Structures are given as structure tokens and as C-alpha cells.
Amino acid sequence: MTVRSARAIAHSNIALVKYWGKREGADPALNLPAVGSLSLTLDQLRSETEIHANAHDRFELDGVALDGKPAAKVFEHLDLMWRTSGTLSARPPCFVRSVNHLPTAAGLASSASGFAALTVAAAGAFGLASSLGDAGDPTRTRLAALARQGSGSAARSLWGGYVRLDAGSDPSGSDCIARPLHGRDHWGLKLLVVHTARGAKSVSSTGGMESSRLTSPYYPAWVASSLADLDAAERALAGRELAALGEVMEHSCFKMHACMFATRPPLIYWNGTTLEVVRAVFQARERGLVGYVTSDAGPHVKVLCEAAVADALAAELAALPGVHEVQAVAPGPDAHLELL
Ligand code: PMV
Known about the structure:
Layout: E1 6-17, E2 37-53, E3 58-61, E4 64-66, H1 68-84, E5 94-101, H2 110-125, H3 138-150, E6 162-165, E7 178-182, E8 189-195, H4 205-215, H5 219-224, H6 226-238, H7 242-261, H8 272-286, E9 291-294, E10 301-306, H9 307-318, E11 325-329, E12 336-339
Parallel strand pairs: 3-5
Antiparallel strand pairs: 1-2, 1-12, 2-5, 2-6, 3-4, 6-7, 8-10, 8-11, 9-10
Helix pairs in contact: 1-2, 2-3, 6-7
Bound molecules: (3R)-3-hydroxy-3-methyl-5-(phosphonooxy)pentanoic acid.
């Protein structure tokens, strides 16, 4: 089989209920999470990836050829996709060209959109799919499971809107399934992405979550309390109850960071501005400018709010010392595949 030229677009997502930790005793190659998660897919922030046949493997990110670990991860993932296509011959060499319309590896979920776009493009290039249908297309569910093997959060980027990824318990991973809860038009929310630093984060999420599992005394409590958060968030989302969703979203975020702080050595992804932004959001809420915070394995703060207050809240946060930029992002669309 030859490689077809294919192009994919996948949007980044932010977990409202967080994933942190891999399932104990599971096959590491399956990359199974210890907890489920619930996310919002983001408009604007996206990865676009093309795959073409080439004389040798080549990976280009934002116009720069990369080798070493980043390229190795990309081509390992292509090997997985090629094996999944059922072809017994060796995978032909490929040119993978990716553009990230978001800061890479800064706690803004570039691995989610990156691995989702790579998975979808490879599915096209290797004949696993020629297009993707609407949110109900079972091919999306299959590709989400493959994307998860590259990055846990990537499974959620196969769909737009609001997505739940269940942890499951079967050793094969068959019940670790991502599914769309609501499309992007379900609720006119905005996510303010408050940039508090420039550049890449210091500890990768894979390494960080593994050391939390091994050393944080809070890790078992984090895992045990996650399912209740997921169910509460799903209910609040269905009823469009921002206060209920915001409360559980903040609880999930601060529990995850408490678990990170209690890791040995401690994982502190925040900087001083992160906390100033959190405090400012709490104070604005008291005054009726309602937003709720979350943050991932990086120093940036994301604030969930109704579209009607987004501009006013964004202006207040942009004025804080140490804030570089505030982006107001709407719920984003499904991942897309095109054969070239
Ligand atoms: O999928 P990974 O390995 O990038 O891990 C994502 C971890 C968090 O962003 C902190 C939380 C999440 O659920 O996205």
C-alpha cells in the first residue's frame, strides 16, 4: 500500500475535569488514564498536519525540521497507525508537516491537538478513513482510542464542543472511551486563555503524572474522587448551570495541583502571576463579573465565563502585571480530514 497525501485539522481542548495519572498495572503502550476527564474543545487553537510520501522520514513543526525525541514520538505514532491499517510490509517513509496555531508545550494542550491531528492525517494517509462524518461517526471513536495512545488528552480532540473520556477498567482499554456530550452550539460560553509566561514548560505531563502516582500522598484521594466530579460536571453542563459547573471545575483543578505540589520533588507549574490571576477572578466574581478558573501543567490560567461578560473580564485580567495576553476562545469544531 502506498501513502496518500492527507491533511487534518484538530482543535485543542481544555479539561474542565482533569486527567492526571496513568492506570496502574496497565500496558504502558495503551496509555490508559487512571481517571476520566471532561473537556471543552477550543476554537482558534488548533494543529494542522499534512502527511505525504517521502524519500525518508521527516518531521517539520511550524516550518522547522525536528529530530530527536519529538520526531521519534511522531514516527512511533505513525508506526502504530500503519500497523492498525493491517498492512504487513514496513511503513513507507513519510513527510509530516505540522503547524500549531497555539504555543507549543506550554500547558496549552498542544499535545492534544497535535496527536489528534496526526492520528486523523495518518488515518487518511494509510487508508483507515477517507473522511470523517458528523459527531456520531464511529470512526471518530476508533481514532480517538488511537490518538489517546499518543497523548491522553488527544482522544478528546476528535470532537468539537464538550467531550467526556471515561477511564474504563478493562485491561484491553476497550471501555476507555471518549464520547461527545454536546456540540459546540450547546452553550454560548467563552474560555479566556490568560497567558502568564512565554516559552515551554519544564516537566512534561507524562513524567510529572508518573512521579505524582509514585510519590504524592494525595494521589489516591485524587483518583478516588474523580468520578463524582465527572458526573457532577456532566449534569451541570446538561442543565447549563455555570455556578455548578464552575465549582466542580475549580475543585478538580485545585485538587490536581494539590496532588502535584505534594509530589516529590514538588511539581509547581504555576508562577506568581498565575495566583494573581486566580485571585483577580475570585474578586471579580464577588462583584458579579462571573468566571471560573482552571489551569493545566503550565502557568497559564483559563477562565470559563458566559460570552456576555467575556470582554469585560478579559480587559480586567489583561491589565494585571505579568499578564502577556488574554485570548477569548469559543467552543471549537470537530476534527477534520481531507485527502489531497
Ligand atoms: O495528554 P497529556 O499527557 O498532555 O496530559 C494532559 C494533562 C492535563 O492537561 C494536565 C489535564 C488534562 O486532562 O488535559
